[in-house]
Amino acid sequence: MKMRMTGLALIVAAWASVAMGQEGAPPRENAQRYSIEQAISDRAQLHTIAFDCLAFLTGDMRMDTFLPPGKVSDYFGFQYMRDIDAKEGGHNTSFLTRIANNMLATLSAEQKAQLLTLAKEQEPDIKRFAQMRFPLIKAFRRNMEGDIPAGSNGLDKSAVVKASAELYELDGELAYGRAKVMGAIIRGLGEQQKATLAKLKFGDSRTWPDVPESIDKRSMSHELNVAVMTYASEMFAWYAGSVDADTYFCPERHGMYFGGFGMKTAPAMGKQDYSISTSLTGDSGEALLATLTESQRKNITDLIELQRKNLTDIVNTRRAIATELRQFLKGNVADKDKVLALSRRYGELDGEMSYLYATAFGIVGKTLAPQQKEQLSKTRQSNPNDPKGPFLYSSPIEMPKIENTDHFFGVGKTGKRD
Questions:
Q1: Does pTM top 0.85 for this prediction?
Q2: What is the domain count for the chain?
Q3: H or E segment at 396?
Q4: Sign of dihedral through CA atoms 394, 399, 404, 407?
Q5: Does a structural domain hold residue 14?
Q6: In 3D, which of 322, 319, 67, 70 has the Cα closest to residue 176?
Q7: More exposed terminus of the chain, fewer Cβ within 10 Å: N or C?
Q8: Measured between alpha carbons, how far is 71 from 260 in angstroms, rounded to an integer?
């Protein structure tokens, strides 16, 4: 099958002058290389959306469920600290562990106990957040596979947006709880603790010594340990960072239902000192676009303009949430109602984008020729030893029963099981 490359050539020419985003960025200083402007740039977004499309078309629902724990309630600057790391070690599996261990070694036993208490309080909602994603994931899969219930013309945008708003409201609850506890701990740091933390540079993991674990993992479940380590790493980034860092997100932060993290991050699980490729998204996204026909490709490229306003609104919403949460660092009480209302709005914006992605990916998937499917499968480069899922975040689990998803197509009622 002969592919028409005219459309792709036009895309490359049109965006040649656009500042490169996270994937495939030129070798410049990392602090200049990554920014919110670059994250929402046309090029970064196109590569990321195309990468997600590739993951969706070549994957399955099990891989769609994978979600790094750090993508939940991510208003504390950790992602920015990771992306601008001077050592370029932010995407190594040891990065979070090293800064978390340094932070925990600095805290008193009482302060560490507060993080463990928070983890125990939040554990049910952290789990619920992951489970709430499953019905949306299944609905998007059904749409792509043509499993449309009788009487429906396809996905119902309002139902998708509503579910996303509810998911993000829970995300806001978790963020608020974390900020409250972490803010109190930070305000209570002693001078010696502050002096120790001052030696650890934000964005330069070369200044982080390798310290032994200071918590007993054997005394807690895997889920609790992950939560405590996540809090500790976020607390350092929040303490040493800024509202700009809190607002920042990587290009693949949104529309997290299509298997992109499953294809990119799942292979790193359980591997010591493993670095995730920072060029994978860009290279694979370009390969997907090159494999599609001009009409198929247009479904993907049109998304850039369709989501533009949503991305701008997301940046403003994230900044408003991050600014409010930082009230806890100042000794004030953040407005919870405001945080939750903003979080619901965030969810609505992300839900609209996810609906657009699912619709476009479904159209492309239904029109792929056998040769294209074979080429995309080769592009994915699956490893038979990679974990297969489904996942509760990054932990493999049995596939749970999922509520009836007909309502995502404008028919039926929620509550029944598929």
A1: yes
A2: 1
A3: strand 395-396
A4: positive
A5: no
A6: 322
A7: N
A8: 13
Buried b (16+ CB within 10 A) or exposed e, 164-189: bbebbbbbbbbbbbbbbbbbebbeeb
Q: What percent of the chain has pLDDT over 90?
A: 78
What secondary structure does DSSP assign to 348-394, as a single string? HHHHHHHHHHHHHHHHHHHH--HHHHHHHHHHH---TTS----EETT
Inform me whether the pLDDT recorded for 254 exceeds 60: yes
Cα–Cα distance between 337 and 321 in angstroms, integer? 11
Phi, then psi, of 352 in degrees rounded to 5: -60, -40
Task: Count Cβ atoms within 10 A of the Cβ of residue 141 and give its class: 0-12 exposed, 13-18 middle, 19 or more buried.
Answer: buried
- Mean pLDDT for the chain overall: 89
Angle at 96 between CA 92 and CA 98, to 5 degrees: 95
Q: Which residues, in sequence order, are CB contacts of 257 under 8 Å at separation 6+?
A: 64, 133, 136, 137, 140, 354, 357, 358
Please enumerate in sequence order all residues whose Cβ is within 8 A of that of 23, keeping only pairs 6 or more positions apart, or say none: 44, 47, 48, 51, 251, 278, 279, 280, 281, 282, 283, 285
Instruction: Write out pLDDT tens, residues 83-100.
Output: 999 998 988 889 999 999
Q: Is residue 296 part of a domain?
A: yes
The CA dihedral of 11, 47, 25, 260, to the nearest 10 degrees, is: -170
Q: What is the extent of the structural domain holding 268? A: 39-401
338 occurs within a structural domain: yes
- Res 416 pLDDT > 50: no
Domain membership of residue 32 (yes or no) is no
**pLDDT tens per residue across span 56-72:** 999 999 999 999 888 89
